[in-house]
Design a protein that fits this description.
The protein is mainly alpha-helical. The protein is about 65% helix and about 0% strand.
Length: about 350
C-alpha cells in the first residue's frame, strides 16, 4: 500500500493528566543512565557497541514527561526504575529500526533477537551473558532491579511479555519486507505484544502499590478490562505515530493501514475508523471499570484491603492512559516531519 499523508483527528481521553512531583529529577538522571548504558553518543561511556541517540535527540523525546505523566503517584525510586525501563524500550525500538528495519536485514534482526532472549530469564539467579551493545547492557542492568521482593512474582510474566515484544519486532520486519498487512482480528492481539502492553499492569503496580486481587484476576470481566486497557495503548500509538511509521519507516504494521486493507477502504476513510475503534476500546474500559467490576467485587466477597488495592490500581491505570495520551499528542517524537 502506498503511504498517503493524512490529517489525524484527536483521541478521546476522559481522565485528567497529572505530573509526578519528581519529574524535575528525571531529566538529568535519565541522561546519566542512558550514557552509562552506551545509548548516547559522544563524551564518556562504554567503549563497545554503537550509540543510539545524540544528546539532543534523546532529550527531544521527552521520555521524562512520559514517565511522570503515566505514573503521577509513584515514589521517586519507583519512578526512576520505570523511567529506565521506558528509556530501554525506546532504545530497543530505535536501535531495531535503524539497524534492521531501515537496512532490511531480517537475518541480522533474528540473530540480535535470539541473543536478547538470554537476557530475559524466568529465574532470579540465572546467569546473563556479557552485554555486547547498549540494548543488551540496558536490559541486563534492569534485570537486577525490576523485581524487588514484593514484585518478585512478576519476573516470569514480565520477561515473557518482553520476549513477545522483541519477537514482534522481527515479525513486523518480515511483514514489511513482503508487504503482508496483518488481518484486523489478528492485529489486535499482535499489537498488545508489539507494544509491550503486557508489562503495563506491572508498571501500575510498581508505581501505586495497588494490585488486582488474585481472586478476580482471571475473571472474564478483568480479562476484558485489561485487554481494553492494553488495546488503547498500542492502537492509540498507531494513530499518533502514523506519519513516523508509515511514511518514514514504510511500515505496514499500523492500525490505519490494517483497517484500510482489511475493510477495503481508503486510508482517508480508515483514519476516522481507527480513531473510533480506539475510542471504543477506551469507552469499554471505562464501562467495565464503572459498571461491571463493582458487582464482580461484591460477588467475589473481596475484603476491604483487597478492594482498596484494586481501587488504587484502577486509579493508577486511568492515570497511565491519560499520561500516554498527553505524550502521544504533545511529544516531538510523534510530530509530523516539517
Amino acid at each position: 500500500m502506498t503511504a498517503q499523508a493524512v490529517t489525524l483527528p484527536g483521541l478521546w481521553m476522559p481522565y485528567p493528566v497529572r505530573a509526578n512531583p519528581y519529574l524535575p529529577a528525571l531529566h538529568e538522571a535519565s541522561e546519566t543512565w542512558a550514557r552509562e548504558m552506551g545509548m548516547l553518543d559522544g563524551e564518556e561511556g562504554p567503549p563497545t557497541g554503537r550509540a543510539i541517540w545524540s544528546r539532543s535527540t534523546f532529550h527531544a523525546m521527552t521520555v521524562d514527561r512520559l514517565t511522570a505523566w503515566t505514573l503521577p503517584d509513584a515514589s521517586r525510586t519507583a519512578l526512576v526504575l520505570n523511567h529506565r525501563f521506558n528509556v530501554w524500550a525506546l532504545a530497543w525500538d530505535d536501535y531495531f529500526a535503524s539497524a534492521f528495519k531501515r537496512t532490511d536485514d531480517l537475518a541480522g534482526a533474528v540473530a540480535f533477537t535470539s541473543r536478547l532472549h538470554h537476557f530475559l530469564p524466568s529465574e532470579a539467579d540465572a546467569r546473563l551473558p556479557e552485554p555486547g551493545n547498549a540494548v543488551e547492557r540496558g536490559i541486563a542492568a534492569l534485570q537486577r532491579h525490576l523485581f524487588p521482593g514484593e514484585l518478585a512474582y512478576w519476573r516470569p510474566e514480565f520477561n515473557r511479555a518482553l520476549a513477545s515484544y522483541i519477537d514482534a519486532g522481527v515479525q513486523e520486519l518480515a511483514n514489511s519486507r513482503t508487504g503482508r498487512v496483518p488481518d484486523l482480528i489478528e492485529y489486535a492481539q499482535f499489537r498488545r505484544e508489539s507494544f509491550a502492553a503486557y508489562t503495563a499492569p506491572y508498571s501500575v503496580e510498581l508505581a501505586t502499590g495497588g494490585r488486582i486481587p488474585e481472586r478476580i484476576r482471571r475473571s472474564r470481566t478483568v480479562r476484558a478490562l485489561l485487554d481494553a486497557f492494553m488495546d488503547y495503548m498500542g492502537l492509540a500509538n498507531d494513530i499518533a505515530s502514523y506519519e513516523r511509521e508509515v511514511h518514514e519507516e514504510r511500515d505496514v504494521n499500523n492500525l490505519v493501514v490494517v483497517l484500510a486493507t482489511s475493510l477495503g477502504i481508503t486510508v482517508h476513510e480508515a483514519v476516522p475508523a481507527a480513531v473510533e475503534l480506539v475510542n471504543a476500546r477506551l469507552r469499554h474500559f471505562d464501562h467495565l471499570r464503572r459498571s461491571e467490576l463493582p458487582p464482580l467485587v461484591q460477588r467475589a466477597g473481596l475484603h476491604t484491603g483487597e478492594r482498596l488495592e484494586l481501587e488504587t490500581w484502577l486509579r493508577g491505570a486511568c492515570s497511565f492512559l491519560s499520561g500516554l495520551h498527553a505524550w502521544y499528542t504533545g511529544a516531538p517524537r510523534y510530530a509530523p516531519a516539517p
